[in-house]
Amino acid sequence: MNTLKCFVFVCGVVLYWAVVSSAQSGGIIPYPSDYRKWTHVKSGIIDPGNPLFARYGGMHHIYANTKAIEGFRTGRFRNGSVIVFDVLELQRRNAAASEGPRRFIDVMQKDNGRFEKTGGWGFEKFRGSSRTERVLNETAKIGCFNCHAGQKARDYVFSSFRE
């Protein structure tokens, strides 16, 4: 009986290790917990009436890590570049606009080896202010890339750095 318990334990450890290794080498993108300390690329507002309002309406800020900033300057992003699209509700009161609750953050991470089928970019969306609630399935991630494909000349990145 001890041999069976040992065998089951070893199988469990091997299975766990396989799942963790697969997730880390696959398309899992971690939540960029320190992104607000990165370089602020630009901000914008998408108001009602804009065709993108239903999906991206509100106030947004774009942040980039050091490697991504280099990519904004050169037009080519190195592995390890990370760009965050932080979207918040827009609140208007007394002729002033301010940030409301976070709607989501989109994250793009450059890794040519892991994301070969999507131009070297991995895509993820975190709901609200959650650091764990991922929104995108594999089909949606391909959809992200298909939208970004029109920006191939800019290494699939829409935004540009505002000096």
Task: Please give a structural write-up.
The chain has helices at 2-25, 53-56, 66-74, 138-148, and strands at 39-46, 58-64, 82-93, 96-110, 121-127. It is α+β, with helices and mostly antiparallel strands. The chain folds into 2 domains: 1-29; 31-154, Chalcone isomerase (3-Layer(bba) Sandwich). Strands 1-2-3-4-5 form a 5-stranded antiparallel sheet. The radius of gyration is 19 Å and the shape is globular.
Fill in the keyword field for this structure.
single chain; 163 residues; alpha+beta; 4 helices; globular
Secondary-structure element pattern, one letter each:
HEHEHEEEH
Q: Main sheet, how many strands, which sense, barrel?
A: 5 strands, antiparallel
Output the structural class.
alpha+beta
Radius of gyration: 19 Å
Q: What is the fourth-level CATH superfamily of the largest domain?
A: Cytochrome P460
Which fold name is given in CATH as the topology of the largest domain?
A: Chalcone isomerase
Oligomer: single chain
Mean pLDDT metric: 87
The number of domains is: 2
CATH architecture of the largest domain: 3-Layer(bba) Sandwich
Q: What share of the residues lie within helices?
A: 25-40%
**In the CATH hierarchy, what is the class of the largest domain?**
Alpha Beta
Query: What is the distance, rounded to the nearest whole angstrom, between the alpha carbons of the first and last residues?
Result: 69 Å
Count every beta strand, where a strand is a DSSP E run of 2 or more residues: 5
Spatial arrangement of strands, main beta sheet: 1-2-3-4-5
Task: Tell me the β content.
Answer: 25-35%
Poorly predicted regions are 4-25
Number of helices: 4
- The global form is globular
